[in-house]
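=== RUN LOG ===
request id: a7f3
mode: sequence -> structure
chains: 1
length: 226
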Amino acid sequence: MAIWLTLCGVTVLVAYLLGSFPTGYIAVKQLKGIDIREIGSGSTGATNVLRTLGKGPGAFVLMLDSLKGVLAIALVYLLFNFAANQNIIPPTVDVKLWQPWISTLVGLAAILGHSKSIFLGFTGGKSVATSLGILLAMNWQVGLATAGVFAVVVAISRIVSLSSIAGAIAVSIFMLLLHQPLPYILFGIAGGLYVIFRHRSNIERLIAGTEPKIGQNLATEPEQTA
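=== RESULT ===
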């Protein structure tokens, strides 16, 4: 059991490191030679990259950040396949029960890594794209439904933060409607609340009516992302 628990712990740690990989920071640093944390919202996520470098780099970072979430969940499948082949899984471990729980822990670790990157002094993005990748890997129907909510709200409002918040709220609803395992439902609640918490400055600007729409630049000073 000790070896199995150690492998589970290492998988969660690797997921955090994977989530921590600062794609947005690297993209802006390489293409423009500046620290993205010092401009716009101060976030390293795709939205701030969009405002800084345009649609192409923004879409590229969005794709890579989502891929981090997909790969994090893929780690869980690699863990169970490796452990099964090496006969490491203890007889008392029910794989069907353990796998959703480990996936949830791994998903939360990747989200935390993206927003609190160890490579950027525990700063980062707001974990929206990485969360979407995790959802798609957990259950593609939930992921697509959540992305659909985001797309509809952004098409109407032209405000990315509002769309992200709407998607974060919708996740738990879709998890329940599609009868997902309890760990996934808890992931939807915890992950959704965390994403909303990361958008607290955006919520303040939404209330004040100063939140920029797509194509507009943020007129305020960079927010604290630590």
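=== NOTES ===
Residues 108 and 191 are 7 Å apart (CA to CA).
The two ends are 37 Å apart (CA to CA).
=== END ===
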